[in-house]
C-alpha cells in the first residue's frame, strides 16, 4: 500500500448497500471506502486514474507503451460463511455485476454462501523421455521420493518456513505417445498464499538433473500444470422456493427451469461451454481485479470440466429433500495474495483492502461463490424470461452514454430504448436531441 500511514480496513462491514446503483462513480467509491474503512489514498487508487504508474507497468511486462483501462465495479450483498463481502470486479460486460449482486441478495436471505477449499497444492511436471523401461523408472523415482522432495524444498526455504513446500511426488506413465513412452514426475507443492507458478517451476528445474541421474532418461519440459486439481475451491448455496419466486413465476417453476437448464449443461458440451462461461463471468472479474492470472484460472477450470473425458458443467443444481434449490460449484482456483501483479499493481492491493481476505484460500473461495452467484443469475433468467430484457436495459445505458447523455438523461433514454426494444446510438441521439 502506498503512503505512510496504513489504516487497517474493517472486515466486519455490511455488504448490503442500499441505492448503490443510483450514485455516481465518485459517490459510490466514497460510500464503499466509508463502509470498508479505506484511507483516501486507497480510495484514490480504486479510481484507477494513474493507479498504475507507467514505471511500474514498464517493470511488469515488456515493450510497455501505456495502460489499458477497464471498468471496475463492486458487487454488493454477498454473505459468505457468515461474513459480508463487497466484491470488486473488473469486467467489460454489462449485467455481470448487477446479476451477481441481485443473486447475492436472494442468497443472503437464505443464509448466504458456504465455501471450503483444499490446501493450496500446485503440481509441477517434469517430463522424461528416451526411456525403454517406464515402469522401472517410475519405481526408481518413487524410491527416491525423499531425496527429490528435499531437493525441491531447498529452492524455497521461506515457503517451507511458512508451512508450505513440496510435500510429495507422483509418477505418471504414458506408454504410447507419438514420441514414444514417457514418464512424467509430478511435484506436489503447497504454495500457501502464492499463485505458485514461479515456485513450482523453479523446483521442477532444480530436480531435473537428479531425475535424469536416477532414471537414465532425458528431461525435457519442467513446468507447472494449470490443471490444479489439488487446489480446489468449493461454494454452496441453498435457496427456498419462496426466495426464488417472482411476480410471473412460482419458486417451484423457477427451480424446475434451473434444474432443466443445468441438466442440459451436464450432458451437452455445446451448452456446458456457455454455462461455464456464465460461471467465469463471475470468477474472471475478481481474478483480474486482484491482479491474478485469469488465463491460468480459465485453463484450470475448463480442463477440470473435461476431467471425465466429456466436457461438462462445472456446477450442479439440485432440489433437496425439503424442496429447496441447492447449487454447488467446485473447481481449481490457483489464486495468490502475494507475488505477481497482486503485489505490484497498486489498485489490486486496494481491491484486497476491500475484500479483506486473510489467505489465498479465502480469496479463492470468495471468488468461487461469485461464480456460483453468476451461474445462478444466468440460469434463473434463461429458465424464465430469457436474458435479453435485463441485458438490453443495461446495455441501453451504455449506448445512452455513448450518445452523450449525462445524469438523469441516461436512465430516461435507456428505458425508452429498452421499452421500444430498439437500442442503437442513432436512436439515443434522436431521443437526446428531442430532450
Ligand atoms: C453471457 O455472458 C453468459 C450466459 O450466456 C451464461 C449462460 O448461458 O448460462 C448468459
At a glance:
The protein is built from 18 helices and ten strands.
Polypeptide structure, described:
Helix 10 packs across helix 11, helix 11 packs antiparallel against helix 12 and helix 17 packs across helix 18. Helix content is 49%, strand content 18%. The chain is α+β, with helices and mostly antiparallel strands and 435 residues long. The protein is globular and about 80 Å long. The strands form three sheets. A four-stranded antiparallel beta sheet has the order 3-8-10-9. The longest helix has 23 residues. Bound molecules: (R)-mevalonate (MEV). It is an enzyme of class 1 (oxidoreductase). One of its GO terms (molecular function) is hydroxymethylglutaryl-CoA reductase (NADH) activity.
Q: Features of this protein?
A:
single chain, 435 residues, alpha+beta, four-stranded antiparallel sheet, 18 helices, disordered N terminus, binds (R)-mevalonate
Bound molecules: (R)-mevalonate
Strand content: 15-25%
Model regions low in confidence, pLDDT < 50 over at least 5 residues: 1-7
N/C terminus separation: 46 Å
| Rg over alpha carbons | 24 Å
Overall mean pLDDT: 94
Provide the spatial order of strands within the biggest beta sheet. 3-8-10-9
Largest sheet: 4 strands, antiparallel
Question: What's the total helix number?
Answer: 18
What is the β-strand count? 10
Order of helices and strands: HHHEEHEEHHHEEHEEHHHHEEHHHHHH
- Work out the helicity level: 40-55%
Structural class from helices and strands?
alpha+beta
Q: What spatial form do the alpha-carbon principal axes imply? A: globular
Amino acid at each position: 500500500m502506498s503512503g505512510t500511514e496504513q489504516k487497517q480496513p474493517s472486515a466486519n462491514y455490511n455488504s448490503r448497500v442500499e441505492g448503490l446503483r443510483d450514485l455516481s462513480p465518485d459517490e459510490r467509491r466514497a460510500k464503499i471506502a466509508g463502509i470498508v474503512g479505506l484511507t483516501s489514498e486507497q480510495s484514490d487508487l480504486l479510481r484507477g486514474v494513474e493507479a498504475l504508474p507507467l514505471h511500474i507497468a514498464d517493470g511488469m511486462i515488456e515493450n510497455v507503451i501505456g495502460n489499458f483501462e477497464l471498468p471496475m465495479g463492486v458487487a454488493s450483498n454477498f454473505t459468505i460463511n457468515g461474513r459480508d463481502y463487497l466484491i470488486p470486479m473488473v469486467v467489460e460486460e454489462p449485467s455481470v455485476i448487477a446479476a451477481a449482486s441481485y443473486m447475492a441478495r436472494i442468497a443472503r436471505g437464505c443464509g448466504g454462501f458456504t465455501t471450503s477449499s483444499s490446501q493450496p497444492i500446485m503440481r509441477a511436471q517434469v517430463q522424461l523421455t528416451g526411456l525403454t523401461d517406464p515402469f522401472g523408472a517410475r519405481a526408481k523415482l518413487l524410491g527416491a521420493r525423499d531425496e527429490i522432495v528435499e531437493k525441491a524444498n531447498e529452492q524455497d526455504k521461506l515457503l517451507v518456513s511458512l508451512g508450505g513446500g513440496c510435500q510429495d511426488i507422483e509418477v505418471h506413465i504414458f506408454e504410447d505417445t507419438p514420441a514414444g513412452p514417457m514418464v512424467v514426475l509430478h511435484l506436489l507443492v503447497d504454495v500457501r498464499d502464492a499463485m505458485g507458478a514461479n515456485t513450482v517451476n523453479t523446483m521442477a528445474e532444480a530436480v531435473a538433473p537428479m531425475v535424469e541421474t536416477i532414471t537414465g532418461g532425458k528431461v525435457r519440459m519442467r513446468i507447472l500444470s494449470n490443471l490444479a486439481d489439488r487446489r480446489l475451491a468449493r461454494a454452496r448455496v441453498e435457496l427456498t422456493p419462496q426466495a426464488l419466486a417472482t411476480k410471473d413465476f412460482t419458486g417451484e417453476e423457477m427451480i424446475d427451469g434451473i434444474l432443466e437448464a443445468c441438466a442440459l449443461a451436464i450432458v451437452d458440451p455445446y451448452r456446458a461451454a456457455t454455462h461455464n462461461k456464465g460461471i467465469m463471468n463471475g470468477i474472471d472479474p475478481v481474478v483480474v481485479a486482484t491482479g491474478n492470472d485469469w488465463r491460468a484460472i480459465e485453463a484450470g477450470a475448463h480442463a477440470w470440466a473435461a476431467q471425465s473425458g466429456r466436457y461438462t458443467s462445472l456446477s450442479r443444481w439440485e432440489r433437496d429433500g425439503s424442496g429447496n434449490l441447492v447449487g454447488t460449484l467446485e473447481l481449481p482456483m490457483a489464486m495468490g495474495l502475494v507475488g505477481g501483479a497482486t503485489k505490484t499493481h497498486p489498485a489490486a492491493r486496494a481491491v484486497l483492502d476491500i475484500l479483506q481476505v486473510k489467505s489465498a484460500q479465502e480469496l479463492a473461495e470468495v471468488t468461487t461463490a461469485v461464480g456460483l452467484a453468476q451461474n445462478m443469475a444466468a440460469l434463473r433468467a434463461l429458465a424464465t424470461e430469457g436474458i435479453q430484457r435485463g441485458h438490453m436495459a443495461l446495455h441501453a445505458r451504455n449506448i445512452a452514454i455513448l450518445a452523450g447523455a449525462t445524469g438523469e438523461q441516461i436512465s430516461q433514454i435507456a428505458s425508452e430504448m429498452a421499452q421500444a426494444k430498439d437500442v442503437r446510438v442513432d436512436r439515443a441521439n434522436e431521443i437526446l436531441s428531442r430532450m
